[in-house]
Amino acid sequence: MLRGMRKASSNWLGKTIMAVVMGVLIISFGIWGIADIFRGFGQSTVAKVGSTEISLNEFRQIYTDRLQQIGRQFGRPLTPDQARAFGLDRQVLQQTIAEAALDEEARRLGLGQSDEQIRQFIMNDPNFKGVGGNFDAQRFQAVIRNFGYTEQRYVAEQRKVSQRRQITGTIGAGLEPPKALIDALTRFQNEQRTIEFVRLDAAQAGTIDAPSPETLAAYFEDHKVQFRAPEYRKIAFVVISPEEIGKWSEVSDDDAKKLFEQRKDRLGTPEKRQIHQIVFPNAAEAQAARERLTGGMSFEDLAKERGLSAADVDLGLVTKSALNPTVADAAFALPVGEISQPIQGPLGTAIVKVDKIEPGVEANYASVAADLKREIATERARVKVADLRDKMEDERGGGASVVDAAQKLGLTAVTIDAVDRSGRAPNGQPVANIPQGLDVVSQAFNSDVGVDNDPISFQGGYVWYDVLAVTPSRDRNLDEVRDQVEARWRQDQIATKLKAKATEMVKKLEQGGKLADEAGAIGAKVETATGFKRDDSPAGVPSVVVTAAFRTAKDGVAQAPVSGGSDVIVFRVTDIVDPKVDFASDAVKKLKETIDRALTEEQVASYVNKLETNIGTSINQAAFAQVTGANQ
After folding, report:
1. What percent of the chain has pLDDT over 70?
2. pTM here?
């Protein structure tokens, strides 16, 4: 759309038309804005909870922040379509409305929180504490900035959170999960079973004769939909990214060697030292301790005397960069076994001892030259990417196809003659020339022939693509898929025979037969799985068998198909252990905490739902769709 507007406004007539259009839009925005003030609940409001209005801009900020947070966790941006598919749009709206309802109730109840209480709450947050365990202002700023907050906005939000907790904490106070529930859940989780079992596979199915032409044809007709050819699309795309452009850049050895010299220390393996350290309140105590150590007292004995464990004084095998600079300089100048002079550090006066030295290995230019050249080429290419992006957009805006535009700019476009939604070619193999991580196939199946698609962000660059042709899904004839049909028919025959054998075996076992005898009669072997729980994965026992075993009584016999029915397992439950419940154990305490938390959340949810109903809640679906992209 933006490309079309730019093209349309490139001449005097287009500029005149665009000026008129923009003038009308500005006037209409003014009218709608004024009208919203008088209507009270207008197009700029997403929802209204009691007297609280959640504005369109406010909800957009909340929704964008949430998507960015999730995107950082996944390591890739989350598109609006993906967010809606996961139901994140509704979740964020529901949470925002719930918080607004609690804020309304807090105002009604006259709840408040002093500045000092908020200050203490933030300073005690472990997320903002530095290495020494104290509040770190720089860490605080970095963390909240990473989540898109300013300090003022974060403090204001925490004030609201604190007031909400006053309400929810009161609602959840005193809830106690019933002892019978904990007992039942603990027994359910920790119950153990032991089984003996036999696996029936193709070897026990016997000989499967080749099907007659009539049989195969009939089977194909009954299962034709399984062999239907999928929709294929012919697509073309071009990648403009630093990595891709960098492939064509030449980097001299001189440039690579300059970077090598700058990183020489980091590219090699640094020297490491096994270091013991004790920190004293002042230099006098440290000097006195050093004299005792040089007089024959061990570091370990001195540590014990000061109430320190071995782990407290052993820094491990560390590099110089891992230590405080002052301590590092002293420690890495010592020979093995020698005690340092007192060292003034940030937390006191330290004494260190070196017990072991692992020499560093100097980096070799030849071994890293290729990587360095690739990195330099990629970095230089970043500048070219922006320039090529603009040129590519200009070519596309002028009506050029992806292939023509790429050819004009000296780029290599990739054309795939046929690919299905799963990224496979007609031969069933994955298409090889799509870069890993590039989701161009699903994008192409959401587009069509002749559509001017927006570029896809990829590896710090962009990918432009065209759908060149669409081959609709169709029914195949038998001759096209004869081998596949026969293989599927044979699998079904094996599954049918194995099920019949397993059913017969189960019947004999239920009548008093022994599993070892039945297994020997068909050339199979008996295996056992002992003491497994519901969530366990014993060796050789598929999850469907574990589930079936917990549905079967002691000494009971059952069967379960595995591997899509090509194997069947017949088993007998030989033992069931019903565990005793120790209410004082850590496991039961953790379970109780989990149940307690779930009960509290359920209670709070019911309270908030009732609150929303009582104070009145309304949602502007059009504004909500505008923010989440559902109207596009």
Report:
1. 88
2. 0.53
